[in-house]
Write a structure and sequence with these properties.
Elements (H helix, E strand, L loop, with lengths): L34 E7 L8 E6 L2 E7 L13 E4 L2 H5 L4 E5 L5 H4 L2 H4 L8 E3 L1 H14 L7 E3 L5 E4 L2 E8 L6 E8 L2 E5 L17 H10 L1 E7 L14 H12 L4 E5 L4 H13 L3 E5 L1 H13 L12 H4 L7 E5 L9 H6 L13 E5 L7 H13 L3 E3 L14 H11 L3 E5 L3 H13 L15 E4 L4 E4 L6 E4 L6 E2 L1 H13 L1 E8 L5 E10 L9 H20 L9 H17 L4 E10 L9 E5 L1
Parallel strand pairs: 3-5, 5-6, 6-7, 11-12, 12-18, 13-15, 13-16, 14-15, 16-17, 23-25
Antiparallel strand pairs: 1-2, 1-19, 2-3, 4-21, 8-9, 9-10, 10-11, 19-20, 21-22, 23-24, 25-26
Length: 600
């Protein structure tokens, strides 16, 4: 099996200063050779799925998503792939193919369009409807042309011919794609499962997969998310029985949270409300937007008067109310979290309310969700949650379905996608079990380049594949060093040292020291600590003046590094150390400062 370093878990993306600069003479930028397959995101992680296919001077993207930050990414709202490779090769980008409308597959598109124009975007009607709203909000609707596709429709993009085939997933209007390239046929599954009793009646187009296999599939890229789960994923229709039971027995209000994009689940909740003569209010802009777009496009139907605004729903008896809300992942500002913490302006928990959490945690969100559930229980709610509760099923294939996909396509080469590194490794092992040659299975990472020919494939030198961090409330792009500083502040606090120096770098005032958020040694008062810290700073200054420790650093760096060592050795902590130096010259005749300049 062609894989390197079988590490488990998520691997950090390469830094932007990595050894191989994107587009600067790398193999990925050379027009010669075979088909280049270049993941910019989605491998070794859950989220920001972005795949590049290149042959010669023609380049297409399959999806362009985002990810949500981990808890230690303080102040970060979104995580995106680094798009420098696309910007440097903007003239070769012929189009973008969307498999479905989830944020981890379309959320990055507005950010790409800030930097380059994509000539055409092809995708399902629902995904394009959601994307259109995003682009309109930021004024980028004129940076591309969007074209809706139908099942089994083929489109020509440069030297590639892309066929969209219906698949089953947790969002309506999902596709897998069969891509015919000059070297052979590539199948990208997108997110999928084999649901043989789908809510909308749209079955997976297995016939098109088998037809492609008869012609010969050169490369299969397949969803790895649930590779660690045996058996089959339950049908979306199985959720209905449990929802119906809960609605029948609930004595007061029913509050339901799910992924805003799960049209099938939202439709089932609305149907249950109709059946039990309850009115619905929707909290959360993303949920409201999706309900409106899905109804407009015909993916769900409901009568006028079923959905009411929150102020009207409050006038109804408790047993006639359903509240559909965002917050299934315990997001701090979501409606459900604010309700749980008694911070919502319009909705407060009443003892006996039934709260249904119809979603599974995205890795990293488990603690936030548990905190929300705890707060709901404290306020007297009956909370229905967890894998065994029957109120949620995954949209991703388990092992037996992944085997079925491999055996249907019978690929020459196999590349697992969409999953943390351990998942990719397990999926690669599964492909070998299904008969793919170990030498033809490639476990890749973001930035790796796989070159595929008709009869062979090989890894080339990687490109840069870092991340871009977004704070949507301020300047949208955040330097990762700022996030690291925030982490230091949160974990170990900050120390500031201010010194006034003469021209010979001797102190004439200070050092003045302040501290924020430090945990002091047991029995030591803040006043005593600041006295010791001042003595330590003076000692470090003396060392610098006498040339101890070398003069290769400037004074600011010397002080900062020495204080970091001091805190690590004496206090077992690593606070953020800020040095402020002010240089002055002192006229002899007046003894006052004639000028000053500050460096920090």
């Amino acid at each position: 099996m062609s894989q390197e370093d079988p590490r488990l878990g998520e691997k950090r993306a390469r830094a932007k200063s990595g050894p191989q600069a994107a587009g600067s003479g790398s193999a990925a930028s050379s027009p010669a050779g075979g088909l280049k397959v270049i993941p910019l995101g989605g491998l070794g992680e859950i989220g920001k799925n972005t795949m590049v296919l290149r042959y010669g001077n023609d380049m297409i993207l399959v999806d362009a998503g985002l990810a949500f930050p981990s808890e230690d990414m303080l102040g970060v709202d979104l995580v995106l792939p680094d798009y420098h490779f696309l910007v440097e090769n903007h003239d070769k980008v012929k189009g973008l193919v969307i498999t479905h409308g989830h944020e981890d597959h379309i959320g990055g598109i507005p950010f790409i369009l800030r930097h380059l124009t994509i000539p055409v975007i092809y995708g399902p009607a629902l995904a394009l409807g959601l994307l259109e709203g995003k682009l309109r909000e930021v004024g980028l609707e004129d940076r591309t042309v969007m074209r809706k596709v139908r099942p089994r429709q083929e489109v020509k993009i440069g030297c590639f011919t892309v066929k969209f085939i219906r698949c089953t997933h947790s969002i309506a209007d999902s596709y897998s794609v069969i891509i015919r390239t000059p070297v052979g046929t590539v199948v990208h599954t997108g997110d999928f499962k084999f649901d043989f009793t789908p809510v909308d009646g749209e079955l997976y187009d297995i016939a098109s997969l088998t037809a492609a296999a008869e012609e010969g599939v050169l490369l299969l890229m397949s969803d790895s998310t649930n590779v660690e789960r045996e058996g089959y994923t339950l049908s979306e229709r199985s959720v209905w029985r449990r929802l119906d039971e809960i609605f029948a027995n609930a004595q007061k209000r029913i509050i339901v949270t799910t992924f805003a994009s799960n049209v099938h689940r939202v439709r089932q909740i609305l149907n249950a409300a109709l059946k039990y003569d309850r009115k619905v209010t929707i909290l959360g802009r993303s949920m409201l937007n999706l309900a409106g777009i899905a109804r407009e496009l015909g993916y769900m139907t409901y009568p006028d008067g079923l959905i009411l605004p929150p102020e009207e729903i409050k006038q109804l008896p408790l047993d006639k109310v359903v509240i559909l809300t965002t917050g299934s992942q315990g997001e701090p500002l979501s409606a459900l979290t604010r309700i749980a913490n008694d911070e919502h302006k319009q909705i407060q928990i009443v003892p006996g309310d039934t709260v249904i959490i119809s979603a599974t945690p995205i890795p990293g969100n488990e603690r936030s969700i548990a905190n929300t559930i705890n707060a709901l229980c404290v306020r007297g709610a009956d909370v229905v949650y967890g894998r065994d509760a029957g109120v949620h099923v995954s949209g991703h294939a388990c092992r037996e379905e992944q085997k079925l996909m491999i055996n249907l396509c019978r690929p020459k080469f196999f590349m697992p996608v969409h999953g943390e590194y351990r998942m990719l490794v397990r999926h690669a092992e599964l492909a070998v079990e299904c008969g793919v040659s170990p030498d033809n299975v490639f476990v890749m990472e973001n930035g790796d380049v796989l070159e595929v020919f008709k009869d062979r494939a090989q890894k080339l030198s990687p490109i840069n594949a870092g991340v871009v961090l977004v704070d949507s409330s301020r300047e949208w792009e955040i330097d990762d060093q700022i996030v690291e500083q925030r982490r230091h502040l949160a974990e170990d606090g900050m120390v500031t040292v201010a010194i006034t120096l003469d021209r010979e770098k001797k102190p004439v005032a200070g050092p003045d020291t302040t501290m924020k958020g430090l945990i002091l040694p047991r029995g030591m008062s803040p006043e005593e600590f600041l006295i010791r810290l001042k003595d330590q700073v003076l000692s470090i200054l003396e060392d610098y003046q006498k040339g101890r420790g070398g003069q290769e650093k400037d004074l600011r760096s010397f002080l900062q590094d020495a204080l970091v060592v001091y805190f690590v050795e004496k206090m077992k902590s690593r606070p953020l150390v800020q040095i402020v130096l002010q240089e002055v010259s002192v006229p002899v005749e007046r003894g006052k400062f004639s000028r000053s300049r500050e460096r920090s």
